[in-house]
Each structure stands twice: as C-alpha cells, then as structure tokens.
Amino acid sequence: MDSSSLCYSLELVAGSGCTLSVEQRAALQTSLVLLKKNYKFHRVLFWGKILGLKDDYFIAQGRGEDEMQDKKNLYSFNCMDWFLLPPATDSLVEDVSKAAKSRFIGDPSFVYEHGERDAAAEDEVVTKVNEESRLAVAVHQIDEEVSVVPRGAFIKNPHGLVQINRSFGGLSHSEAKKLDNFLHFRKAKNLKKKTVLEMGDLNPAIDFLDVLSDDIPKGSWSLQLECASNVCVLRSLLWLGLTFYNVPMTPQHGYIYIGHGTKNLDLPFML
Fold first, then answer.
1. Where are any strands of DSSP class E within 119-250?
2. Which pTM value belongs to this model?
3. Across-strand partners of 115?
4. What is the Cα 91 distance to its own chain's centre?
5. C-alpha separations of 234 from 49, 121, 139 in Å
6. 155, 165 in Cβ contact below 8 A?
7. C-alpha closest to that of 164 among 179, 153, 151
8. Phi-psi region of 75 (alpha: psi -120 to 50; beta: other; left: phi over 0)
9. Residue 224: other Cβ atoms inside 10 A
10. Residue 94 and residue 113: Cα distance in Å, rounded?
11. What local confidence, expressed as pLDDT, does residue 199 receive?
12. How does residue 192 score in pLDDT terms, banded at 50, 70 and 90?
C-alpha cells in the first residue's frame, strides 16, 4: 500500500481484518515520510505485518526508479524506528527452509537450528539462521508468489525499466471481475511459454507479467466485490493474510499482508 494513501487503503481492506490502531497509523504516516527522504526512495509502501509470539514485525518497502528491481525491505516494532532487512539470496532461502519451521518469535536475534546427518562425512551438519534472515526470506517469498497488480498499472519502458503507468485509469467493472486482468508483480516465469497465437493482441509494454489465472493449483485466489460492488478484493489462499484491493475505474490499488508468515502447504488438499 502506498504510504501517501495508507488510511484510505486500510479502510478498503478492513473487511479482511487488516486493521491498525490509530497510534500505529499516525506513527506510520510520519515515519514513512522520513524513510522516503532518508533513503532517497521514489516512493514507500506499507507492506504489512508479520505476527510473532512475543512481538510483531511491521514491514515497509522502499522502491527506486525500477519498481520491480529497486526494492528494499525494512522492519520495525513500533512503526517509528526502521531496520534494513538483508537480501534474500538463494543460499539464505535454502537455509531458512531447512531450519525454520515454527511460528515467528518476534526477536530478530533468535537463532533457529537444524541438524542433518551427512552420510559421507558420518557427522551431523547443523544449519543455523537468525530470525532477521528468516523475516527477509518470508517477505521475499510472499512478494514473489502473491504480490498483485492490475493489468496496465505498470509499464516497461524502452530501456527495460518497470515504472508506474501514469496513464492507467483503472479496470472497468467487468474487467475487475476476471482473474485474467490481475498480474503477479515479479519477473515473469510462464510468459515465454505462450505462443503468439495464445497471446493474441496483448501489448508487450504492459503484458510482461504472469496472470493469476495461470496459477497452480487452480482456486488459490478468492475474488469478491465488496463495499456495494465498488471495490474488488482478492485474497490469497496460499499465503493466508495477503489481501489486494482495486477500485474499478480508478488507478487506486494495493495489497497488504497481515499473517504468520507461513505458507499454506495444505491448500491442494483443501480445494
């Protein structure tokens, strides 16, 4: 959610239980402005909150000239003091997948350990990872798998930079009812597999992202019209807690995650 319209956006997703206290909203409105200035971000988003057993992590995301590549994630406990998260490298993702299985604690220095016997060396290999690293991986994975934008909201310019499409006026009411008009905001994984015949009259300047309707398993998204059918709300069943909103006929859209930071691995058996 763009920090400049945070309070308005939170009202539109309140039906999913995505709420913050008055004190938290006030603190965010002040601190995110300073965050943008201090780090020289082009804009700052309030990404959401990951719930811990002792404390909760509030997450902000700063974006640069390229909205997809120039991203930095930060966390806070009080919505005022922010700390930069490390990049989620492939090795870090692998270590976290081995060592961290339980709920988040709420302590960045907490260390998860996982022992695994190495048959060749005949000894036990212990993988250690702290919770700050696990938090970085969780935010990265949620962004990779369920971050959503409406079709046309972003454009790839001739230099290859992904930027906000200033001419985007929003989806129509009929378009907002179709999952095909919502895209994953990540580097495309399935787009190149499509033939020219399948792509039809798609515009390469805006159709450079994967559509949600191609997701496997089918049925991993819930699409509903709320607020007297004036707001389209998408909820992920794979990462429970991810809520996206879009106001048809306007450029207003965004998403927020409020949850435990764990993937719903039982989804294929629930559908």
1. 123-130, 148-150, 154-156, 162-164, 182-184, 221-226, 231-236, 242-246
2. 0.90
3. 126
4. 21
5. 18, 49, 19
6. yes
7. 153
8. beta
9. 13
10. 13
11. 46
12. low
pLDDT band with cut points at 50, 70 and 90 for residue 133: very high
Which region among 49-63, 127-141, 186-200, 243-257 has the lowest average model confidence (pLDDT)? 186-200
Which amino acid, one-letter code, is at 214? D
Sole residue written with tokens 């993937």: 263
Predicted pLDDT at 100 = 80
Cα angle value 180/220/195 (rounded, 5°): 40
Please provide residue 251's backbone torsions phi and psi, each rounded to the nearest 5 degrees.
Answer: -80, 5
Alpha-carbon distance of 188 to 56, in angstroms, equals 32
Show Cβ contacts of residue 238 under 8 Å, excluding neighbours closer than 6 positions.
Answer: 145, 146, 220, 263, 264, 267
Q: How many residues does the chain have?
A: 271
